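Re: weekly structure request thread

Next one in the queue (379 aa):
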Amino acid sequence: MIDQKKFHECLRDAGVEFITGVPDSLLNDFCTYAEAELPRDRHIIAANEGNAIGLAVGYHFSTGSVPLVYMQNSGIGNAMNPLLSLTSQDVYSVPLVLLVGWRGDPAVKDHVQHKKQGELTPVLLDNMDIPYRVIDQEDETAFEAVRWAVDTARKQNSPTALLVKKGMLCKAEKKDTDPGDSEYGMSREDAIGIVLKCVPEDALCVATTGRATRELYEQSAMQGRGHDKDFLNVGAMGHASSISNGLALGAKNRQVVCFDGDAAAMMHMGSMVTSGVLGSSNMLHVVLNNGVHESVGGQPSAGHQINFTAIAENSGYRTVGRAVNTTAELADAVKQLLGRGPAFIDIHIRKGIRADLPPLKVDHQDLKRQLMKNIQQGA
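Done, posted below.
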């Protein structure tokens, strides 16, 4: 792995003084170093990648410096609109550097949800006229690539990119998030299990990207629910509640439960307004709020700093008026809100995952067929 102190010093010496983005597992140690060492007004963890591009553009306008925006390559989709309609040479011609974790790199075995994105990442950059280099070595070539990216962005007044291969800006083995001395007793899996026990047996459940998918799968098995009523949203971060709303509209006779994450809910928070406007009585949206981006390394989110419940209420959800912190509070909240949706519960939980939780090994298309068959049979 590249020495993070030297990598950040190289960025600083090249003129980068502002860094923003959305954490990624392939950039874990880069993000961790930035969070620990940079002033709070020089490193911003954004809600989504488009948000980060906007922050970077505004900072450039006010300082003239070349900012850096980091992301997993799945975030290119969120960033594409502002990259093409704001930063390109045809519009405002803004220099910035994209630091992109290359999930689904064709040379590396990865999860199926990253495959197509990985194949298309260089194609997308080429088609957006964003010149790039690949960081795949730990020697001086990595630092030369940084200097090239900043200099080229400055000279061309447009974005450049650095594609980062696995193991360059993160350790080969990701360390699980340390729960530390948390004031919250529930784990994410505890909360999922309690909700499942409180909702109807035929409830349709959606789990957000990351570890929540593994834990819903495990809890459904442990409680004898099977897996034909669950949708595991292994990609498309931030869209679990939209998928849940679509299910609720099409299966009005079934309770729908969305197991969302705090960072995922914030990524596309406008979808909460859509939930409120739709007004589906069978929609229950729960946020498993541990205050971190746990699945990609444990970088902090704003989950414990904002009032999700107030946001939900003002978006049109029914709530119990506050976040819930205990198993008893959670069970009571679910019972109060069932059938009175759209309903929302902010569940404050501790960080961490059970050490012996099995990896998720599923046939995604078979799961989809099972889910659709179950809904059709229950219609």
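The mean pLDDT is 95. The chain has two domains: 4-164, 188-377.
Next request, please.
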